[in-house]
Write a structure and sequence with these properties.
Helix content of chain B: 40-55%
Number of helices of chain A: 20
CATH superfamily of the largest domain in chain A: P-loop containing nucleotide triphosphate hydrolases
Oligomer: heterodimer
Number of strands of chain B: 5
Largest sheet of chain A: 7 strands, mixed
Largest sheet of chain B: 5 strands, parallel
Structural class of chain A: alpha/beta
Helix content of chain A: 40-55%
CATH topology of the largest domain in chain A: Rossmann fold
Shape of chain B: globular
Order of helices and strands of chain B: HHEHEHHHHHHHEHHHEHEHHHH
CATH class of the largest domain in chain A: Alpha Beta
Strand order of the largest sheet of chain B: 2-3-4-1-5
CATH architecture of the largest domain in chain A: 3-Layer(aba) Sandwich
Distance between the termini of chain A: 74 Å
Chain lengths: 518, 401
């Protein structure tokens, strides 16, 4: 039986709402075409262009997943403690991380594989029912799985409009869907408030009657969602679940965190920051990815992918080093850079023998890096993208972060002008800051704003590659500004001197010797 | 050092307070409410999480803090978070203010305590259910009759009178000042749902429950935990220090709590837990009594130090800015770093004073917003000088009761 929220609108069978319930395994997303992501990605490269679209990205597959043993262990331990009924329980786990750090993949992996494999082995007497609730739409080629609920782009637009009626409507659907998955039958026409009150009571009763049941709610991309909607989500769903005895809530999110009001979402919580991959992990990721690419159908898999898949371990490690140097080890960036890099090299020397040597000696094409940057910045709404791209370019040299009074100097330097006039007022800077924070590509951390490190790293590398003089000027601007402020503000001298020193070091490393600035 | 009283308020520049705070990136003034119960955001910026945890758990507890040390704030925060959702398994917060007990010169008897607790409990329950009527709607008709009977038994006035107020005002907020001020909850139901709530109670056709006070109060607890789905009852007892004018005399207030603790083990068996909020001056008298009578109770102390005060000031900024930033550093000139640290290191470690002084700095900044745009050293100097000037002459506002 279809759940109430699912309607089939076209013969091509693309569901309006992307979810599959317990009876509908693997029904969704059949109408997205058959061209493989590999051939699409490489098609444009053959014409000398990198055109990375949404379909370029690999979608989650269990055997492509790399790393995150620590995070899986955290979840497994929490489930074990819940099963044991420990007094000190973690009821909520939050995984935070930058753009492309693999949060959505982790959420999917926990839901589809890790909880089944790890937790069910360690607490075999318990039935763990997990739900994946994604507050970001699924990639086009993702086969939506059992007990997975995805928000749609249309939902997001309506939520962004701030219309609370839409929050209510969407949550009504979500609550009804969860109730159905748990075999709790309620009238579909109940108001959200009624539904929430009934669900809280019915799930409690279900947990009382099924003593071996553990419910695990996995919410993906939480902090990126509209704050008004999160208030509703907490009030009508999460707060009630968080108070129940055998429920674990797992969240992933990027950017500024959300302050939950429910005590159980605040007190019995563990926060973990995901970290970029190590060299070994990037190597493994690239190897798996290239091998997977070569397993496509003969028509769709170009000869190149076979060559790439047969690269030696040493060559892949060399490639991984280059990828880390350019992108910092973030899985999404790793994937995009590695594939693009291999095919940049293949485009120039397509023979297998030469490939490894070519990889070792080649430098990345700025078009490849531009493609990666564009992909990373797709999370910025189109109407803000150009404006924010300029701001990000100006600030990307500030690895240690910035405050609002620093912004005009770097924007002006990028534009090769003076920070004067209405464009450079603090009011204007606060407007830009707010845009940046809205996209969750910046956040307040340790007394300063910091850019999303995955994005910052790529943008700085790109700026250095494309406009070295501008990149140098921005660092020089930083040295001069912080040296000046260290003199002017004696109470903060050490603070500014440390920052000046960092930029002096960057410039010195770039030219290979120490330099001094006026 | 300058003290410019003429520039204290942003209104002088024709900006409303809300407008002005928006201009610096805050949704509201996070330092304006010195009286905890009037602050709608209080439960969002709790920093003392260990105390918060024991204030909610199912164990008898004494929570100790100095005057102005955040006892009332903690009690209010606990109350509101318990009612944040619509119908979950949260504790039921029963605020019992001993400061409102009749002053007869002797401590209340057990029966008097129970009568006062029942009154406080039903006031809280009616107000809470008016905000969350769905808890009542999901109860069976028998359970609804039990709720009505207990409300009629405990409320200080006729139930129908309060239902009329609800119908007339169209909002549960109409009951809050009459019955329980800390129950200023958010997300009230639509008027038609509130009307249905009033009709449900009015037509359940039940008289007030009668019987021994002990039995009636026990029934109240059962209604709350069984019929309405709360996990346990928290007796949030406060105001013990409000009955006497000075600290020396306040020692005499300790016996007012003894009767309550004599019952704590019996109550614990029926999911009812004492959470007594007292000033540090009463701690030894009460703990000595408990020790002497072998009454098991956990003791938690709210201890404010400079680091915790910094966290408190920052948490408020974080909530007010929707987590965009969590320090006034974000809106200050390069001359200032670690502003909250700079403020609190010059003050005694009490949240009320830290809030007042920080607000003073912001108002000073507001007064010259059009000239400057960023908070600077002068604003901080001004606020600290203000504190030292007035603190030496007269104490700041007394702690809330």
């Amino acid at each position: 039986m279809l759940s109430p929220g699912i309607t089939i609108t076209q013969p091509s069978a693309v569901y309006r709402r992307h979810r599959v319930d317990k009876n509908q395994h693997s029904l969704a997303w059949q109408g997205t075409g058959s061209m493989s992501r590999i051939s699409k990605m490489f098609g444009d490269q053959r014409n000398g262009r990198i055109n990375m679209t949404q379909t370029d990205l690999p979608v989650y597959e269990d055997d492509l997943f790399v790393n995150r043993d620590k995070e899986i262990e955290t979840v497994t331990k929490a489930l074990e403690n819940i099963a044991r009924g420990d007094a000190e329980q973690v009821r909520t786990i939050v995984f935070q991380g930058e753009r492309g750090l693999g949060k959505s993949w982790l959420a999917l992996h926990l839901h589809r594989s890790a909880i089944k494999k790890e937790a069910s082995t360690r607490i075999p007497d318990y039935r763990i029912v997990s739900f994946l609730i994604s507050l970001t739409p699924p990639p086009k080629e993702l086969q939506v799985g059992e007990r997975e609920w995805y928000i749609t782009s249309n939902d997001i637009s309506q939520i962004e409009s701030g219309d609370e009626r839409h929050y209510e409507h969407l949550l009504q659907e979500l609550l009804a869907w969860i109730a159905e998955q748990l075999d709790i039958v309620r009238t579909p026409y109940a108001s959200l408030r009624d539904l929430s009150a009934w669900l809280a009571q019915d799930v409690r009763k279900k947990l009382e009657s099924e003593q071996n049941l553990i419910i695990c709610l996995i919410l993906d991309s939480v902090f990126e969602a509209n704050r008004g909607f999160l208030d509703y989500l907490e009030r009508y769903l999460l707060a009630a679940f968080a108070a129940l005895p055998r429920v674990l809530i797992i969240m992933t999110g990027r950017g500024r965190p959300y302050l939950w009001k429910s005590p159980y979402l605040r007190l019995e919580r563990e926060d973990q920051s995901l970290t970029p991959f190590s060299l070994e992990q990037v190597t493994k990721q690239i190897k798996k990815s290239l091998q997977k690419s070569s397993q496509g159908s003969p028509q769709e898999s170009p000869q190149d992918t076979l060559i790439a898949a047969n690269l030696s371990d040493e060559a892949i490690e060399q490639l991984a080093k280059k990828v880390i140097n350019l992108g910092g080890g973030y899985p999404l960036t790793n994937e995009l850079l590695a594939r693009a890099f291999v095919h940049q090299v293949l485009g120039r020397s397509p023979k297998s023998d030469d490939l490894e040597q070519a990889i070792n000696s080649a430098t990345i094409d700025d078009k490849v890096l531009e493609g990666v940057a564009s992909r990373l910045l797709e999370v910025i709404p189109t109407q803000w993208r150009d404006e924010l791209r300029e701001v990000l370019n100006a600030l990307c040299v500030l690895k240690d972060g910035f405050r609002e009074h620093e912004m005009p100097y770097f924007l002006a330097e990028l534009r090769d002008t003076k920070p004067e006039g209405p464009e450079y007022t603090i009011k204007a800077m606060r407007g830009l800051r707010d845009l940046l924070l809205e996209t969750n590509l910046g956040r307040w951390q340790d007394a300063r704003y910091v850019l999303d490190e995955a994005v910052r790293t790529v943008l700085e590398q790109l700026l250095k590659l494309q406009k070295r003089e501008v990149w140098r000027r921005l660092h020089e601007r930083a040295v001069n500004l912080y040296e000046d402020w260290a003199k002017r503000y004696p109470n903060s001298r050490q603070y500014f001197e440390q920052r000046a020193e960092y930029h002096r070091r960057v410039l010195a490393e770039d030219v290979g010797h120490s330099v001094s600035f006026a | 050092m300058t003290t410019r009283d003429k520039n204290e308020y942003p209104d002088e520049h024709s900006l409303t307070s809300t407008d002005w705070f928006r201009r610096i990136g805050l949704r509201f003034d996070p330092y304006v409410h010195l009286e905890a119960s009037s602050d709608p955001h209080l439960s969002e910026y709790t920093v003392n999480l260990d105390i918060f945890r024991v204030a909610l758990d199912n164990k008898p507890t004494i929570i100790v803090a100095p005057p102005g040390g955040g006892k009332t704030a903690m009690r209010v925060a606990v109350t509101r978070t318990c009612w944040f959702d619509i119908g979950g398994t949260y504790p039921f917060p029963l605020p019992y203010n001993l400061g409102t007990a009749p002053l007869t010169g002797t401590p209340p008897t057990t029966r008097e305590h129970l009568r006062l607790l029942l009154e406080a409990g039903t006031c809280a329950l009616l107000t809470g259910l008016a905000f969350r009527p769905e808890r009542l709607f999901r109860a069976s008709s028998t359970e609804i009759r039990a709720v009505t009977a207990i409300l009629r038994a405990g409320l200080p006035g006729p139930l129908d009178y309060y239902l009329d107020i609800l119908r007339e005002t169209g909002t549960p907020a109409g009951l809050t000042p009459l019955l329980e001020r800390t129950y200023a909850l958010t997300a009230p139901p639509p008027p038609d749902v509130l009307d249905r709530f009033c009709n449900t109670l009015a037509t359940s056709g039940t008289d007030a429950m009668r019987g021994r006070m002990e039995e009636v109060f026990q029934t109240f607890v059962e209604v709350v935990t069984d019929a309405l789905g709360f996990s346990h009852v928290l007796l949030l007892i406060d105001g013990l220090d409000a009955m006497y004018e000075n600290q020396e005399d306040s020692q005499h207030a300790a016996p007012w709590a003894f009767e309550l603790f004599d019952r704590s083990e019996t109550w614990a068996k029926s999911k009812t837990f004492i959470k007594l909020f007292i000033p540090d001056s009463l701690e030894s008298a009460i703990t000595e009594y408990l020790h002497h009578h072998a009454i098991s109770t956990q003791i938690a102390r709210i201890i404010w130090n400079h680091d915790l005060l910094v966290s408190m000031l920052r948490k408020r900024i974080s909530v007010a800015s929707e987590e965009r930033f969590e320090s006034l550093d974000a809106i200050s000139t390069p001359a200032l770093t670690n502003i909250e640290q700079q403020i609190v290191k010059n003050l005694p470690p009490l949240p009320r004073i830290a809030l007042q002084v920080t607000r003073k700095a912001i108002l000073h900044y507001a007064a010259r917003l059009n000239d400057g745009w960023q908070l600077d050293e002068e604003d901080i100097r001004y606020a600290i000088a203000w504190y030292h000037h007035y603190a030496t002459q007269r104490s700041l506002s007394p702690p809330s009761r």
